[in-house]
Amino acid sequence: MSTAASAIASPRDPYKRRKTTRGNFELYGWIFMRASGVVLVALIFGHLFVNLMAGDGIKAIDFAFVGGKWTSPFWQVWDLLMLWLAMIHGSNGVRTIINDYAEKDRTRGILKVLLYTAAVVVIVVGTLVIFTFEPCPVGAPAELLPSVCFD
């Protein structure tokens, strides 16, 4: 009985992490995931309510609707918070998965660099879109423009 039990390898044998002194980074990551998850739920449900329930539903969502919303700094900040928190929250979750399942240090490093690069690109491009969006482009058909363009 003891020989059969000793023949089964420990689940952690193939991959043993090196001990590092990273301080409380994992603890702060864990706390961030819980806090950002709660804030994201509020942001997302608020976003869905305003976009789908308060107005005329999904048929009303078009360029004019988004253009009208993004003329308000409130909605710009709302969508910016949603973008940043969702990307950082998701990236932190994928980082944890990479740490758990990538066995080789080199593979883990490459995957993390790709992850961080993708997250930064999406955050930067999304932030630029939110703050440089022009709701009243020159030469656009009048029926597609929000009402704020005619004031």
How would you describe the overall organization of this protein?
The chain is mainly alpha-helical. The chain has one domain (25-150): Up-down Bundle (3 helical TM bundles of succinate and fumarate reductases). It is built from 5 helices and no strands. The termini are far apart.
Write a concise keyword list for the protein shown above:
SQR/QFR_C/D, cell membrane, cell inner membrane, heme binding, 151 residues, 3 helical TM bundles of succinate and fumarate reductases
What is the strand and helix layout of this fold?
Layout: H1 2-7, H2 25-53, H3 63-69, H4 73-101, H5 105-132
Helix pairs in contact: 2-4, 4-5
Which term fits the overall shape? Answer: elongated
Strand content: under 5%
CATH structural fold name: 3 helical TM bundles of succinate and fumarate reductases
Q: Flag low-confidence runs.
A: none
Intertermini distance: 85 Å
The share of residues in helices is: 55-70%
The CATH level-2 architecture is identified as Up-down Bundle
Number of strands: 0
Task: Tell me briefly what this model is.
GO terms for molecular function: electron transfer activity; heme binding; metal ion binding. This protein has 151 residues and is mainly alpha-helical. It has helices spanning 2-7, 25-53, 63-69, 73-101, 105-132.
